[in-house]
């Protein structure tokens, strides 16, 4: 019988990991939520707001993303998106670092008419360059969490999400991970995420909330916005989303459940 060398086994295992991670990211990329914010602000102010409450200013990777837009940025309403460039530069880049080459410029755009048009707005489905100092409404985006169909304890679920991809040179532990157990930035889960919980094969789905050293904290080390018991029942030190619709329900961390992974 032929035996594989250690190097060939490592190579095959590496290919398996790459395939699994790529499959996860591709699936993840199909679920993106766009949020219209009507406040009229400059592009830097819009970006700051999106990064605080969502993921970033809107980024588009394909026509499907464009089709998923809300209807508010039509009929003469121009909204900030995340495409921008440095002063006197010709290269346009997304504010969240996305490397996609997809574009959807209006005819004869970008024109840099009058100079210093280094930011981009969308109207309908087409893009226009404009000054970053203009005051306009804007679009933020947030990626949908992915329900992982494996039964794991809370700690096992955390390790699974964090092993999907990592940034080895990050100076902080949290930002070493491209994915993590879901920490809920918005007040409510989206309807798609709630439907996934209802259809799950476990009573609840793990999220990234845990009771440690007398405090409830999300995995990004931020406290939850809602009040939780200061002395939870024995073992009920981890958070789930329940089938009943409760966004946070406390459960025993050693139980095995499905879980949500989301991008940091």
TrEMBL record:
<protein>
    <submittedName>
        <fullName>Aggrecan core protein Cartilage-specific proteoglycan core protein</fullName>
    </submittedName>
</protein>
<dbReference type="InterPro" id="IPR018378">
    <property type="entry name" value="C-type_lectin_CS"/>
</dbReference>
<keyword id="KW-1015">Disulfide bond</keyword>
<feature type="domain" description="C-type lectin">
    <location>
        <begin position="29"/>
        <end position="141"/>
    </location>
</feature>
<dbReference type="InterPro" id="IPR001304">
    <property type="entry name" value="C-type_lectin-like"/>
</dbReference>
<dbReference type="InterPro" id="IPR016186">
    <property type="entry name" value="C-type_lectin-like/link_sf"/>
</dbReference>
<feature type="domain" description="C-type lectin">
    <location>
        <begin position="140"/>
        <end position="262"/>
    </location>
</feature>
<dbReference type="Pfam" id="PF00059">
    <property type="entry name" value="Lectin_C"/>
</dbReference>
<dbReference type="InterPro" id="IPR016187">
    <property type="entry name" value="CTDL_fold"/>
</dbReference>
